[in-house]
Amino acid sequence: MGESFGAWTMGRDAELMDYVSSVNIACGFHAGDASVIRKTIETAIVKNVAVGAHPSFPDLQGFGRREMKMPATEVFDIVLYQVAALKGMCEAFGGKLRHVKPHGALYNQAARDKNLAEAIAKAVKAIDENLVFYGLANSFLVSEAERIGLKTASEVFADRTYQADGTLTTRSQSNALIESVKKSCEQVLEMITAQTVTAVTGERVTLRADTVCIHGDGANALEFAREVKRSLEENGILIHTI
Question: Domain for residue 3, yes or no?
Fold first, then answer.
């Protein structure tokens, strides 16, 4: 959420908030500016949606999706800076920051790099040890955050395909994104009810599913959010904030 700039109105972000329980709001390093971030936070508070910080590498041109080599100390600093800013903006409007989820390449690199994951988790804990840390299920993001005492939420994806090792299919591959609403709903139900996901190669990978991600910039994001919510409710699955 909040991944736009300047003279921008809420548009689809506001509509999406009618179907989700929490949002990850850009912190300015990969997208968003002060005004957009503020408007997005205010809308989330009005709609009673849990607010999360979405820190990234400093990569506006690449939307935070290009890999970067950065020392763990610098990663600690950029995460500390971004999360602290979003937390302060939430509190300025009577809201509360509930969780943190790294964005893009920072997320994917830390999922497989223990030291990077530790640096991010330590930055989050330094700001507020009660924040929930969202990370890719079965990854270092979750294990390192848990090791230092943070509450975690293992994240699964409604609109991305998986590899046999439990990682997301890289966006450079043609089959990385799920474009079928039916397939998305089926994958989400499998991940929640069976605690497995079927990889693109056919293997069933075991995982824990605490929170489901839908990318707000996806072409079918609004339809995905609406139909996934409907599918969960029809199958007796309660949606709530963590």
Answer: no
Indicate the burial class of 143 (C-beta count within 10 angstroms; 0-12, 13-18, 19 or more): middle
Secondary structure (3-state) at 136: strand
Report in angstroms the alpha-carbon separations of 34 from 39, 56, 89. Answer: 9, 16, 9
Q: Which domain holds residue 145?
A: 12-234
How many domains is the chain partitioned into structurally?
Answer: 1
d(CA 181, CA 209): 19
CATH value at residue 46: 3.20.20.370
Q: Judge whether residue 8 has pLDDT over 90.
A: no
Find the mean pLDDT for residues 13-37: 96
- Domain assignment present for 2: no
Task: Please write the tens of the pLDDT for every residue from 163-201.
Answer: 999 999 999 999 999 999 999 999 999 999 999 999 999
Q: Is residue 96 part of a domain?
A: yes
Q: What is the pLDDT of residues 196-223, one digit of tens each?
A: 999 999 999 999 999 999 999 888 899 9
